[in-house]
From TrEMBL, chains A, B:
Disordered: annotated span: 738-763
GO molecular function: monoatomic ion channel activity
Protein name (database record): Two pore calcium channel protein 1-like
Organism lineage: Eukaryota, Metazoa, Chordata, Craniata, Vertebrata
Compositional bias ranges of the Acidic residues kind: 738-747
GO cellular component: membrane
InterPro entries cross-referenced by the UniProt entry: Ion_trans_dom (IPR005821), Volt_channel_dom_sf (IPR027359)
């Protein structure tokens, strides 16, 4: 009884299977296509029922979590391997690594079962993973053998580990980021050559102007006498790390030389760095647009395939359509947790003319419709209202509710937060201040309880009430931590530093809440929260690059610079345990902990190098050529990745400033408004709109509308995107060729062109 | 005989004046309108013949040069006033300043004579200048009196001096830059508040986490115990100036604290600074677009007024037109140095249908046509060819010519330049190396002479052959300097360091020539050269801001930090002459010359502060509150101005990447191509196109085409803009409302709306 009689009698169901099982398999296949289109997955899976089942399993969340868990374990092995933060015996790390390799192999075999063999072997991702796994295994064997025979051994395959993060099927966003870097490289390269030419010319001029004057640096070394040293010094000056130190000896000799440095900084720091940003930004936009265009085409193609599975011809010679019954089944399979009302809303958007069936064009937009987050607001009565209506609707209770709804309530609590900020700033040793903390905690708890009393709990805790969740988590954790802290203090008489730290952090974090009360701030913060997931992609990118550099850096520099604890009396402490550093600025400024002795300090050092390129110490302890390592790092991270990051933030903000809601949004919104208007006409006295305003402030609807309201309302979380792709698509929607929309009728004909790009698993 | 008979008999010449003088005055008025439209001057001058004459005089180049000379003198007075680089007696600087004030007053009176009195007093620019002049005079009197009676006196009016640069009529670009800053301020302000909120929250957290741990900085001072100190340290960390120093004590205690600093840098340095750029860029674009739109409207309005002066109705009831004769007169008045061929080309572009007269729409585009640089290429025969054709056309001479034209010639000279670069890098004390310089000089001279022999000299020295000029100037100066150097050396036996410096600089600059040979580099360099004039506007902006800060800084900090020459034996040298600096990093790093003791070192210090905000020394010698000065400077210069500068460079590069030539260009180009095609059809054997290619490489046409070529060719210097406004207009041309083009028929009706903006002298 899954399909209606009309669909059973249809001629377009091309297969012979008329059994219910077979019909269900068809529905499942269609739902997989829709789901792939919704999440922009481009995997050419086998369409046999068994492969579809395996494919569905492949995308189950727990398998993905497991995969990422093993990747994380694999990456974090560096913490336990030589040079280790927490040393573990070799056999232990080896066993764990083998386990990880096994897990990756399983995942790969699973993937191989899902897609046809020829597609599997054509995909560079899979080849890449296989090669990484093989190389790692070979390296482990060699390393184990060498270690067992006490030879010097190098775990070179560790630099390959982060590449797994890129090449797993789920690393789509990351691969895209890497592609946009690769695409920008040729353009960047030419600007970089010109920039280096400028640095070389300036260095030559500096050598000629300043080299013969017998000037000295602050350390008493000869100033600007060696050409390559000058090149490096001036390159570092571009990063502003050694400004104004590098200029001082020349400036002290004559102020005329300052002009040389000012011109240099103007050209190389300000103009060339802006040109880099311009080039990166321009390329980024160009290629991303092209990729998103291909994504949209692939998505439409998949929707057309889903349509082909579901379609039936109602009347002889008519256009093929999908019936509401089939449509409902598919949507239920794609998103099981969607409620009926929401699904009906989506259907009414698709089936504009109320025909009970939709054509291809209307069906294709389903993938985008599913990506619009529609919040279903059920105006349930408050539990107290159901339990004890007399009390809940009594005059004092209503007064309380009106109080909490009032704007003054927010202002009062903002003032409390500010007072709290001052108290936090004061000395907490003072018992008065220490006790005041309890008062503030009580006030915050009261706020939450009041809100819970007034607003319907399920609305209050809905997934989109970011600040409500923030409040509750912070306040409750602070309460627990404070209680534990007091208990420890009373019982043992001492204060645990760790717990106190947590308490302080939670207290201070609570102050952030004040930002939400100011309209202008909220807009900026919301944009930042929205681009958050995309920033995480950049985070992964940075981790991959950092990991590779950390592994190489550890091999090159481990143990060269040592850190001695504060209470150490070792005389080597003054020069970081390396006599070569005696008297250098590196040792004097106490930078000894900035070393490559383990993976954690390597990562922290690489962050510092990203901010300011300070590397003279390592060139001293090894060789001047060590600077090449830092030079490559700077080019890759600061000039390329950071600029792409800035380009992304710029673009995201421009989209926020300029683009209106997309057409699709508005069609859903129009429908919602129509429904609302119908309801409003029924009950004119109801202040639905006001209630909507309140929701906008992330407060649920509750008592105020509890009287005689419609049982259901919708609201579009228009500013939130389910996927990064949806955000990207919106970013370039305005520029997307309208011709593309016309082409979705015959995607098969264009397969070759659309999917010629090797970046997609070809269809 | 200035006007044709038809125009004399026209009824639309509304005035009664039929004398030639009067007709000439009308032409002059029209030409002033056209010229104003061309240069986007928005001055509502009196249209009486006398005022027009005065107005023309007002715009004469020597008066402008004189004005800027006096502004320069007035600004550079700071070099001679207390605290002076070159002290002059008070009466001398006072006299010069009075002279400057007098000059400004004259210019203002002249301006007042040109425009109607009510307009004059409504213009804030004029009021501003008058107030500045008055205040300066008052200050001078007070200062003189106090000084004469030996009281302490302050020349506070000096901060007003750079404002003259902004408020003179010619400072249009500068005023626009200031307006775009002012317009961006509200948006920046909210992001800045949020940013400061974040810094304050992080500081509070740092105080709570780190303040109680008894950590010490490298100087042994308590670490992170005072809230405002933390705020300032963390603010400086945003500029990356004190990274990683500020983090080291905490990081040494535990690596967990490094996470705090990393999160801080991620949020405040990377994300917030990107958001600042996004906000500034967005506002900059938005308001600039609006201003350019108004500029275009104002321009069209002026062209319509010019048209109204010149128009005549040829046939009863027909549209008013401007005859070619009148048009020619006006163009001749507007640009006297334009040649006949160029003018005829422009006319044939305007008068598309060859009717001998043009309507309003065609006339209005004249202002833009005049802004397109059309280079008239006269294929003159080479002087040698005229003088001695037999020799010049002989086989060896032709071979030589073919050699110089060959690509290998360029490559050979690029190799010579690279070899020269290596020789420069080597030790010039070596006599072989020193003498090789003569060889290179001879080679470069030979190159120039060869080119002069082969290419027509006037084409070779044309205004647009940037690299030819560059070559000649550098090589000839190097030759002269080297000869002087040798002469001095031989006669006196010693080497003048100054002359040698100049020789070295010239030698190294010569190497830049190599860039022009590489196509990709040329494109980037050309874009940079093109945005050069606009960058100068930012230069003025920076000078204005720096000057004000230098004046205030000198009053606050002069003499607090002293610089001692290298050979000084004064013990105070170790602490920059101020005991408060004893043992500080400021003195240790020998930053003593970074002081506010005179205007030159103030400017250099301010540049350093723009690059990296190092100001701890000044807070030590005066008061912690001195940091406010540096804080404001950083916000204004780094966050606002530098970001607007970056936004401008970004936009300029995007325009280069994306925008095609504007319609107007193409219409001129079409005409040129038509003319060429006609010529080519005449002489098919002529390789005109090849010759054009050669010109593209900045080489003139000469011998190769000397045989039987058309006497005249045009070429559009399409990538060069006569005015900054033209560049801006092109930048936003794509976005300019097409409705605007339709509105130019009735600009009078819209005057109120168009010029409601107070930033233009209202029309």
């Amino acid at each position: 009884s899954l399909l209606s009689v009309s669909s059973l009698s249809s001629h377009t169901l091309s297969s012979l299977c008329l059994s219910l099982l077979c019909v269900f398999q068809e529905l499942e296949l269609a739902s997989v296509f829709v789901s792939d289109a919704q999440y922009n997955r481009n995997i050419f899976f086998d369409t046999s029922p068994r492969a579809v089942r395996l494919y569905l399993l492949y995308h189950r969340w727990f398998l993905k979590v497991l995969l990422y868990f093993f990747i994380l374990v694999n990456l974090s092995l560096a913490v336990f391997e030589e040079p280790a933060v927490f040393p573990l015996p070799l056999w232990a790390t080896m066993m764990v690594e083998l386990l990880c390799l096994l897990a990756f192999s399983f995942r790969l075999v699973h993937y191989a079962k899902v897609i046809p063999p020829d597609k599997f072997w054509k995909d560079p991702k899979n080849i890449c993973i296989i090669v990484i796994l093989m190389l790692t295994l070979v390296d482990m064997i060699i390393y184990g053998a060498l270690k067992a025979t006490n030879y010097y051994a190098l775990r070179w395959s560790r630099v390959l580990r982060p590449l797994l993060l890129v090449n797993v099927t789920e690393g789509r966003q990351l691969r895209r980021a890497f592609r946009s870097i690769r695409n920008a490289l040729p353009q960047i390269f030419y600007v970089f050559l010109l920039f280096m030419f400028s640095v070389l010319i300036f260095s030559l001029m500096a050598l000629k102007l300043l080299g013969k004057r017998g000037l000295q640096t602050i350390d008493g070394a000869p100033y600007f006498t060696h050409y390559l040293e000058i090149v490096f010094d001036l390159y570092v000056l571009v990063t502003t790390a050694n400004s104004p130190d590098v200029m001082m000896p020349a400036y002290n000799a004559s102020f005329v030389f300052a002009i040389f440095f000012i011109v240099y900084i103007l050209i190389n720091t300000y103009i060339f760095m802006s040109v880099f940003l311009a080039v990166v930004y321009n390329n980024y936009k160009k290629y991303l647009k092209e990729e998103v265009r291909q994504l949209v085409r692939a998505k439409r193609h998949k929707m057309v395939r889903a349509f082909a599975v579901l379609q039936e011809v109602r009347e002889e010679g008519g256009e093929p359509v999908v019936t509401q019954a089939n449509w409902n089944q598919v949507v239920r399979l794609v998103r099981p947790n969607i409620d009926n009302a929401h699904r009906e809303l989506l259907w009414s958007v698709c089936d504009d003319k109320n025909q009970g069936a939709i054509g291809k064009a209307a069906f294709v937009q389903l993938a985008d419709l599913l990506n619009i987050e529609v919040i279903t607001l059920k105006s349930r009565p408050h539990p107290f209202h159901s339990l004890c209506p007399a009390l809940y609707l009594s005059a004092p209770s209503r007064l309380l509710s009106r109080m909490v709804h009032h704007r003054a309530f927010v202002i009062v609590y903002d003032i409390i937060i500010l007072v709290n900020a001052i108290f936090i700033g004061l000395d907490e040793e003072n018992p008065m201040i220490a006790n005041s903390e309890w008062v503030f905690l009580a006030l915050y708890l009261l706020e939450i309880l009041l809100k819970l009393y007034v607003f319907e709990p399920r609305t209050f805790f809905s997934r989109h009430s970011f600040w409500n969740w923030f409040d509750i988590i912070i306040v409750v954790s602070a309460l627990i931590a404070t209680i534990i802290n007091s208990a420890v203090k009373i019982s043992g008489g001492y204060t645990s530093r760790q717990i106190l730290d947590i308490v302080f952090i939670l207290r201070v974090l609570r102050l952030i809440r004040v930002v939400d009360s100011i309209e202008r701030f909220r807009a900026i913060i919301n944009t930042l929260i929205r681009i958050g997931p995309a920033i995480l992609t950049f985070g992964q990118l940075i981790v991959v690059v950092y990991y590779v550099f950390a592994m190489v850096g550890m091999e090159l520099f481990k143990g060269k610079v040592k850190f001695y604890e504060e209470d150490s009396t070792d005389p080597a402490k003054a020069y970081c345990g390396n006599p070569l550093l005696r008297g250098t600025a590196f040792a004097q400024l106490n930078y000894c902990k900035n070393n490559f002795n383990n993976v954690v300090s390597s990562f922290i050092l690489l962050v510092e190098l990203t901010v300011v390129n300070q590397c003279s110490g390592f060139a001293t302890v090894t060789h001047v050529s060590a600077r090449i390592f830092f030079f490559i790092f700077h080019i890759l991270v600061v000039i390329v990745i950071i600029n792409i990051f800035v380009a992304f933030v710029l673009e995201a903000f421009f989209v926020e400033y300029s683009v209106d809601k997309s057409d699709l949004h508005t069609s859903v919104e129009r429908k919602i408004t129509e429904l609302e208007l119908a309801l409003e006409q029924e009950k004119l006295d109801d202040n639905l709109v006001n209630a909507m305003e309140t929701i906008d402030n992330d407060l649920g609807t509750g008592q105020s509308a509890a009287t005689n309201k419609p049982a259901l309302m919708f609201k579009i979380a228009s500013k939130r995107y389910r996927t990064v792709d949806a955000l990207l698509q919106r970013m370039f929607e305005a520029d997307l060729d309208p011709e593309d929309l016309a082409e979705d009728d015959s995607p098969e004909a264009q397969t070759g062109r659309n999917f010629g790009n090797p970046t997609f698993s070809s269809v």
